[in-house]
Fold this sequence. Notes:
5-stranded mixed β-sheet, 9 helices, alpha/beta
Amino acid sequence: MTIRPSRFAPTCLATLLAVFALGSAQADEVQVAVAANFTAPIQAIAADFEKDTGHTLIAAYGATGQFYTQIKNGAPFEVFLAADDSTPARLEKEGDIVPGSRFTYAIGTLALWSAKDGYVDANGKVLKDNQYQHLSIADPKTAPYGLAATQVLAKLGLTDKVKDKLVTGQNITQAFQFVSTGNAELGFVALSQIYKDGKVTSGSAWVVPADMHESIKQDAVLLTKGKDNAAAKALMDYLKGPKAAAVIKSYGYEL
């Protein structure tokens, strides 16, 4: 098993497994820009994908808006797993993806989370009580989960009340880290960061009702740079298959 880093976006870089199947002919590699909320699921999916296909998956993680800028500036990504549907649609309109390749691979869920057991109640009343010092969110300008968080605050009439308490992360991973390290008592995170197989794995959380913010439809696209790459095409197909679907659902996403 080989660990292969992405050659791009070092600040949001992570590595994924690189496996060549036994008996495989020359396998290809695919460079993937992955929305930060989908880190754990894609790592789980990658193991099966690489075992089943022999292709190498190389990933970088970050905010969807930042990836858009990097793609427009020539980043070598071949597949983009965004945290929204509007950014891939924009890339499609601008001619940066393979026509017809865009599809929704997951629908995300927002959660209010604290690393402390019992701190967040099942209805999010702690948010309205406003007794905390810091509330973490992802940057709403670049991260769709951050935008959803601001929509929830607005719907609850809390925008002005909490504005001086906000701690803003560059992406949803950093927003999660602010809470996990105790720099914020609670924060809005992706449910996938704290959830596995039907339960919250640590701390306490309120799963935000979907009608409190715009739907977080997460689209995948085959970028123009990947149009002739067998590994990129294989990954797009794999994400639509039953193995990937089972993993995605296990992290609290809808399909």
